[in-house]
């Protein structure tokens, strides 16, 4: 398989954390051991590269982390790496530690950083999509998304117990600043009355119409799932407007926040992280660079980083239709 003579690969997690990042690091370290190349874990993303915080990872260094949420290498956002001087320091450390290539587990910001670094210094790298938002082009799923969905529906199931006991309308805010994938899928899976996401034009009239319909069809409670980036307003504004329009409703708000990023990765995320970690190592050995390893129709694919950064996955209109039909 090997078309290159790589001897040592650095792996880091960068940007926001997501469940399954540990599983991906483990996969990278073990695949390196399998192919008899050295693996180095870089702490705190690009910060660790700039400040020379790294240590060798053997196959046994990554034991007992397959099931742990977060990332034991820790992650960070690095302002210094955005500067030419910062990246020059990172390059010096890379050379000092004799690293031939990098595997960057993170979101599109982290991939942009890798792309800039590659263009300046020619350091081969492969990106592995790790973010709960599932908003990266070139992969059907990102590492952490499935776990986050499961966390959200478990929380909404509990909220529903309270909602039905009191005739309540609950507005539940879920993560997704730019994308409604978590909201749309968790909304369908938890039987939401309405789902508000930035990708579709929502209006208060539609929302109130849906709530009115819910009332007329004898539902005694409603859950409205709202993506963080919803353009109509935040959950508190939406709840206030609903209270004014329906004074008899007991309207409540829950913001799920960071519980969505934590927890043990689901089986699906562990398998995904394991496959992508191995694919990234094999991709580098095969001479690939400046690409992202992803999964499409259950097959490993490599997408040029420039494309992964620039393009966006479209929301599936069929899912919007299903949500509407089932809210009858
Ligand atoms: P998330 O999806 O959780 O936000 P992310 O990988 O998109 O994750 P960012 O904070 O956008 O997170 O990016 C992570 C880091 O990548 C930044 O802190 C910075 O160090 C580096 N980075 C991002 N954009 C650039 C850029 N244009 N040039 C150099 N480095 C960059």
From TrEMBL:
Please name the pathway.
Carbohydrate degradation; glycolysis; D-glyceraldehyde 3-phosphate and glycerone phosphate from D-glucose: step 3/4
Instruction: Please give one Gene Ontology molecular function term for this protein.
Output: ATP binding
A Gene Ontology biological process in which this protein takes part is: fructose 1,6-bisphosphate metabolic process
Activation/inhibition comment: Allosterically activated by ADP and other diphosphonucleosides, and allosterically inhibited by phosphoenolpyruvate.
Compartments where located: Cytoplasm
Residues at the active site: 133 (proton acceptor)
Location of the Phosphofructokinase domain = 8-283
Q: List the catalytic activities from the record.
A: beta-D-fructose 6-phosphate + ATP = beta-D-fructose 1,6-bisphosphate + ADP + H(+)
As recorded in UniProt, its EC number(s) are 2.7.1.11
Superkingdom of the organism of origin: Bacteria
Task: Report the InterPro entries cross-referenced here.
Answer: ATP_PFK, ATP_PFK_prok-type, PFKA_ATP_prok, Phosphofructokinase_CS, Phosphofructokinase_dom, PKF_sf
As cofactor, the record names:
Mg(2+)
Q: Which residues does the annotation say bind substrate?
A: 131-133, 168, 175-177, 228, 252, 258-261
Among Gene3D superfamilies, the record links this protein to: 3.40.50.450, Phosphofructokinase domain (3.40.50.460)
Cellular component GO terms, alphabetical: 6-phosphofructokinase complex
Query: Which residues fall in a coiled-coil region?
Result: none
Which residues are involved in binding ATP? Answer: 16, 77-78, 107-110
**Its function?**
Catalyzes the phosphorylation of D-fructose 6-phosphate to fructose 1,6-bisphosphate by ATP, the first committing step of glycolysis.
Q: What family is it from?
A: Belongs to the phosphofructokinase type A (PFKA) family. ATP-dependent PFK group I subfamily. Prokaryotic clade 'B1' sub-subfamily.
Assembly notes = Homotetramer.
Q: What is this protein called?
A: ATP-dependent 6-phosphofructokinase
Its gene? pfkA
